[in-house]
Design a protein that fits this description.
By secondary structure, the chain is of the alpha+beta class. Helices cover 29% and strands 16% of the residues. It contains four helices and six strands. Helix 3 runs antiparallel to helix 4.
Length: 179
Amino acid sequence: QIIPDSKGCLVEEKFPEAVQAEFFGKLFSNGMFESMSIEELVGLGEDGISYRVPLPNEVFPKAPKNDREFGRFLTRAISLVRTIQKVHQEKYCFGLLGSQRFLVNKNGKLIILGLGLLQKKYSKDDLDWFEEKDFYFLAPEFSKRSNKRPDSRSDFYGLGVLLHFWLTGRHFINAVDKQ
């Protein structure tokens, strides 16, 4: 849930599983919250988290049309890769990289939402939780037909799909089948 207020936006999220407060402490100390544009950690409990981000400013995502916009795309891509790297260093998975997790502030900086999606490991049993638009970003390992268990490498598949979408404005596959 995103609630606009005079200081920006308050984001409240529930955890699908127990996430340790120590984990978020490490992420805060290693600078991940700053790279996500999180301005303040408002509350952290056993079942959820609340934090403040700047107000989003521009329509996002939109495919770059000139060199300046392409430079912004690269800056946002680098910011996202660094954030995913910090999550992986703590032995967590980043979670679904759907485009709805990302906003842009008035300075063009990427705002990354979805702390509630960070998890120790993925489960194929979670597919009912996703919406149809999310399946574009899921790695093939999430398929019930795959013998492989999704892990942090699945984040890189989602990253590639997401960056392609940001760059072109289109999905390169039509993935609405939950199998």
